[in-house]
Amino acid sequence: MKKAAITGSYSTKVGQLEGATCMSLHTEAGLGALDDAGLAVSDIDGLLCAYSFTEPHLMLASVFAEYVGMEPAYASAVSMGGVTACMLVMQAAALVEAGYCRHVLVVTGDNRLSGMRGNAVQALAEVGNQQYEQPYGMTIPAAYALVAQRYMSEFGVTSEQLAAIAVTMREHAALNPKAHMDAPITVDDVMSSRFIATPLHLLDCCLISDGGAAVVVSAADAAANLKQPRIDVLGSGQGHTHEYIVAAPSLTDYGCKNSAADALGRAGLKQSDIDVVEIYDSFTITLLAELESMGFFERGEAGAAAAAGDLKIGGKLPCNTHGGLLSYGHSGAAGGMFHVVEAVEQLRGSAKGRQVDGAELAFVHGDGGILSAHCSIVLGRA
């Protein structure tokens, strides 16, 4: 029997949620995950939170615990950008495996759209290296555009292939009633949307959303009598090569190569064993580059596979079945947690119209910074 399992999960509706706050989203998501697991606040002895742009509390986990009347034996908050959610799940699994906790609540959420309006883009434009990037106007889309340009030059990736990824994500989001964007788009729509940073168009970029998501990670014996079938944490791994794009050792090979190898190796699995993947897609090129770097496709093949429909539900490798950051929504650290929650739903067989038939093994990946920090997790249906 595995030592750690996800026993509860929940995600809020995503989009522009007027009146929502960081704490209201944390509360809805956290209590929703507890209810899903059949647990009470008093059952939780571990609490892990991420961070918030709209309410930048110094000790977010302590603030949330106070807010909901929780007195955990262990509490911590982590700020690692888009990789945070997967890292928190990995940390929660380690806590229960080490015997420090029985049930760890991992909660994320932010009202990044309604709470920041246009300031979210400005805030993200200020994360570059203060000496070598910020003075020259480097933005996050511009950094990812460098990656896209290199892939186009080295592996023949086309804008149409990147657009096919965006179209697939929107098709999946249309099957999800909680998604931020569900209106159909075409490759032509993506190609005709305005450039944000050449060659990335507007529809190659993720959304800015309000939303929250949470999971409960439990010790295996503590999971045995809960109301949901447990989803085992089979393996996890991290990879770190740089922080700023100016220092990246490669624009085509990243730490996700190591995180994926470690996660799959610890699970005793290989890429071809995986039934569904939920992979960070801040931009279309992010998803393409990570799929290849992690070994799900050979170099130069992921774009053609996307254009052929291989990433669709029913395709060879169903990917981001909830719609991903590109169409389901992206609200800070909760963006990565949406991927975890979707993997749980797929493995439970509760994804309804977007269900992947016979899904037993899922691979989840988070990416922080400019393809800087990586965490991969392999989940399995018990």
Automatic annotation (TrEMBL):
This is Thiolase. InterPro entries: Thiolase, Thiolase-like, Thiolase_C_2, Thiolase_N. Residues 6-219 form the Thiolase N-terminal domain. It comes from Roseovarius atlanticus. One of its GO terms (molecular function) is acetyl-CoA C-acyltransferase activity. SUPFAM superfamilies: Thiolase-like. Residues 237-381 form the Thiolase C-terminal domain. Pfam families: Thiolase_C_1 (PF22691), Thiolase_N (PF00108).
